[in-house]
Amino acid sequence: MMSIIDDLSKIILDESRISNHYQLLLEHGKDQSSYHPVHLPDVVVFPKNKDEIRDIVKYAFESNIPIVPFGLGSSVEGQVIPVQGGISLDLTRMNRILEIHPDDFVVKVEPGVTRNQLNQALKQHNLFFPVDPAVDATIGGMAATNASGTNAVKYGAMKDQVLGLEVILANGDVISTGGSYIKSAAGYNLSGLFVGSEGTLGIFTELILRVYSIPEHTITLRAAFPDVLNASKSVVKMMKENLSIGCVELVDEKTVSAINRFKNMELSPHPQLFLELSGKENIVHNDLIIAKEIIKTEGCTDIEYALNPQEREQLWAARHEAAFAIQSLEPHKRLLATDVCVPITGLPKAIQYMRQIMDEHQLEGAILGHVGDGNFHAVFAVDPDNESDVQRAKAVNDAIVDYALKNRGTCSGEHGVGIGKMKYLHQQHGNLLLTMSEIKKLFDSKNILNPGKMIV
User: Fold this and answer.
1) What structural domains does the chain harbor?
2) Pairing relation of β-strands 217-224 and 272-279?
3) In what order do the strands lie in the sheet with 272-279?
4) Strand pairing class (272-279; 245-251)
């Protein structure tokens, strides 16, 4: 142990940025809320620039020491957990916004920049970065897991926003992919390969991102429905009408109940849709008329509108804090969240099946999700020290994933693979994993980059 710290002290001359203090190791041995077991790293290091990262990686490669990138630990499938120990590379101090080119709609940032930090800087240019996973995650972590969130229905996921990357490979080599251009047909799309690789192929030191103009006009509404089936049907109908939907989110009655308690709110105790229309003012108001007609035909019982930014932020806060609200019901437990995505037309039946399976297993859980792109979640509170509790939740997760894969879906829409979904990756991709394994060996011949994740 001391030899690792002694060796790293020759690279990081500031000893305060190298630590094996137990509490710090514990913070870096788990993610924020999931049920996955804790594994402590041997040491936590806080680099401040790419040269330090390169030298740390070279040392880890030569010494066969695992190295795991860490942002804010907000991933939910154990991506940041160092299952084989080694170095936890905390990138939060690499948090500079390097360049903003407002007329090109492009920015360059370091991996520790958070989405809120970036959007605060962009606001003065009337720009914003759209990927919103409902927590203030780092940009590097969001790219590593191909995060998406509430705005994905309109803007897509991280893979649609990352134009270029600077990456340090397992042997310390530095490569750059992509650039500040919106499109290119020159060579392999290596940026797309690294996005979603969860720190298993390389470590990001710079990211070039696409940003967007803040919409001219936005209207947010919350609509209550008699059940989740009617709510999800209304989403399918609105998508077919090609409305100017910026976000559309679903929470079921159990989630609403948890939100009311957690936020001291009085939302109608029924499934809710949170819907945002954004764009040119005349288009938004015309689309609002159509949206109201659709949700009323599906039995909407209550509608609330929010027009100014403060009202909209307050309304969205209920959805954004849904997971924390669910966990607050049983604060001694951790969360297991399913993450399937199916074609939009299959969404209503998939949600109905999800509730049926949860009821059959007598498992209290909530249903919520980004239903505009077919991605939705069931969230359960799980006691990680109670094996029967964990196995029951996993059985429900297995059934939901199996249903999605048999109905043209995927095991993960946005949470990624980590250690929680590796068996589903095999189920979904089969022999294609052999090709993925060869790619892993090409970029990381000694398997030091986040070992034990995604592909074993």
Assistant:
1) 2-90 (3.30.43.10), 97-213 (3.30.465.10), 217-324 (3.30.70.2190), 330-417 (3.30.70.2740)
2) antiparallel
3) 302-306, 217-224, 272-279, 245-251, 365-370, 375-382, 334-337
4) antiparallel
Q: Which residues of 102-137 are buried (b: 16+ CB within 10 A; e: fewer)?
A: eeebbbbbbbbbbbebbbebbeebebbbbbbbbbeb
> Taking the CB of residue 96, how many other CB atoms lie within 10 A of it?
15
Per-residue pLDDT of 93-147, as tens digits, reads 999 999 999 999 999 999 999 999 999 999 999 999 999 987 899 999 999 999 9
Long-range contacts, stretch 263-271, CB < 8 angstroms, 24+ apart? 263/317, 263/318, 263/321, 263/325, 265/318, 267/222, 267/224, 267/318, 268/224, 268/301, 268/302, 270/224, 270/225, 270/226, 270/227, 270/301, 270/302, 271/224, 271/225, 271/226, 271/227, 271/228, 271/230, 271/231
Residue with tokens 């980059």: 449
Q: Two tokens at 251?
A: 């929470």
As a 3-state breakdown, the chain gives helix, strand, coil percent values, each rounded to 5, of: 40, 20, 40
Q: How many CA atoms lie within 13 A of 62 on its CB side?
A: 11
In this prediction, residue 344 has a pLDDT band, given cuts at 50, 70 and 90, of confident
**Token duo for residue 408:** 């043209």
CA atoms of 292 and 310, how far apart (whole Å): 23
DSSP one-letter string for 239-273: HHTT--EEEEEEE-HHHHHHHHHHHT----SS-EE
pLDDT bucket at 8, cuts 50 / 70 / 90? very high
How far is residue 46 from each of residues 13, 130, 285, measured CA to CA in Å?
Answer: 11, 28, 49
Please name the residues in contact with 209: beta carbons below 8 A apart, sequence gap of 6 or more: 106, 107, 108, 109, 129, 139, 161, 162, 163
Question: Residue 1's pLDDT band (boundaries 50, 70, 90)?
Answer: low
Q: What is the pLDDT of residue 295?
A: 95
DSSP conformation class of 156: -
Q: What is the pLDDT of residues 246-271, one digit of tens each?
A: 999 998 888 899 889 988 888 888 99
316 pLDDT exceeds 90? no
* Burial of 264: CB neighbours in 10 Å, binned 0-12, 13-18, 19+: exposed
DSSP string for 301-360: -EEEEE-SHHHHHHHHHHHHTHHHHHHHHSTTSEEEE---B--GGGHHHHHHHHHHHHHH
- The H or E element that residue 98 is part of is strand 97-101
Q: What is the pLDDT of residue 266?
A: 85
